[in-house]
Amino acid sequence: MPVTDVTTDPENLTMTIVADFAAPVERVWSAYSDPRQLERFWGPPGWPATFTAWDHTVGGRAYYSLTGPRGERSSGSWEFLSIDAPHSFEVLDSFVDDEGKPLEGFAPMRMKLSFTPTAEGTRMIGESHFDSVEALNQVVAMGVIEGTKMAMAQLDAVLQDLREFAQGKGTQVELLDDTHVRITRLVEGPRELVWRAYNEEELMRQWMLGPEGWEMTECVIATEPGQQHRTSWAPVGDTPGEPFGFEGEVLLVDAPRRAVTTERMQGTDGPETLNDLNLYEEDGATLITVLIEYPDKETRDMILATGMAEGMEASYTRLEHEVLAPAERS
């Protein structure tokens, strides 16, 4: 994880974050000065950022929103106070409403990010200055420290070429905490087609089958918030296993980038998971990221022990061979 240290100093009204990256200063600077790259890591998992305005000049402003899995929003603005590329920049960081106006009860803070070379790459030091101890404690109580650690842990993927970062690694499972699991898989193909493969019945039936010997017996796709989805599978012939299925509700859709759904076993009251699908394309390859929120650690471990990751890998391999590759050849 890039973040190596976070300290708060109530006497000097500061919070300091230190992070180390295995990339040169110029590459790290580009990630912090390009809103499209910032969107990939500025928000913690489950709360991706969208920058709606970006004037990267002294006196210019940037506006962004973090969107939670149920559509919750938290917005902010930066006023650029100084820019010394590629070494540092300083902003006045404010909480704002949907119209960009400062929120009452939230004092702005002055934040300076500095980038210096190290033997291994780059050290980033972020120092935030607050108007009062109350303002510092308010931000800490909001979970900014842990959120920042989780957000910046995503930066390694941004700093590398996408294929260098993920190609050939198959389906990767990361335990983020007791209730959150992040699953990633790189597939060769454009994001638009991967999105269609998740949202069109004809395509989904070609690939989302899990291990060999299973068939999809029911496929009800939902594409708008509030709609219900339902999918079932059954073993074919002598394949061992019992039929099963999932159902749930669509909570959020940001096509072709993100979809959030609830999911539970059919015919039960739970346990229910929250599945946050994100798609990112770079140079013709798409990184599929699924952030799953479980109700507790026991449910997380129980579901992972079913061989879920192996089944997903079989499906993703089929997605590449049966859907993406034929489309590329045609």
Automatic annotation (TrEMBL):
SUPFAM superfamilies: Bet v1-like
Domain (Activator of Hsp90 ATPase homologue 1/2-like C-terminal): residue spans on this chain: 23-159, 190-321
UniProt-listed CDD domains: SRPBCC_CalC_Aha1-like (cd07814)
Pfam families: AHSA1 (PF08327)
UniProt-listed InterPro entries: ASHA1/2-like_C, START-like_dom_sf
Record family assignment: Belongs to the AHA1 family.
Name the record gives this protein: Activator of Hsp90 ATPase homologue 1/2-like C-terminal domain-containing protein
Organism: Microbacterium hydrocarbonoxydans
